[in-house]
Specification:
about 150 residues, Rossmann fold, 7-stranded mixed sheet
Length: about 150
């Protein structure tokens, strides 16, 4: 799936589409990798996703805290930003294994910094910032991800 957005609001709407179509996280761990340069819109996409999932408060970038948690109706969303990680082994200190099961939804910015220490993605969302437009590409990485894309209408 590929889409071009021209504003932060449109990027949030795109994230919201994926939230409304997502499988129930209570049945299995769901994982979304978000890649792109600084300022590409990763946190903006997550903000739209979480708002559509029922999060009423502020959605902060976990750049300095590395992780933020949000309670959803059927799951706990774990928003990870791995930009500051020096090596994947640093994830162990966060206790990520405790969140790697049914009832959790992971939204991971900079997943390439956690290679080998992260669960496999169901969806890979790539954001690229252009001069007047942001390109967003979503690819299924599992059978769950393929079904998810179908429900989004890709």
């Amino acid at each position: 799936m590929h889409i071009a957005t021209r504003s932060a609001e449109q990027t949030e709407v795109h994230g919201a589409r994926f939230a409304r179509a997502r499988p129930r996280a209570a049945e299995a761990l769901l994982v979304v990798y978000l890649t792109g340069d600084l300022g590409a819109g990763k946190t903006t996409w997550v903000r739209g996703f979480l708002a559509a999932s029922g999060v009423a408060g502020a959605v902060r970038s976990p750049t300095y805290t590395l992780v933020e948690f949000y309670e959803l109706a059927d799951a706990t969303a774990v928003h990870l930003d791995l930009y500051r990680l020096q090596q994947p082994a640093e994830l162990e200190g966060l206790g990520v294994r405790d969140w790697a099961g049914p009832g959790y939804l992971w939204l991971i910015e900079w997943p390439e910094r956690g290679t080998g220490a992260l669960p496999r993605a169901d969806l890979a969302v790539t954001l690229r910032a252009g001069r007047d437009v942001h390109d967003i590409t979503a690819d299924a990485q599992s059978a769950v991800g393929a079904d998810w894309l179908l429900r989004v209408g890709a």
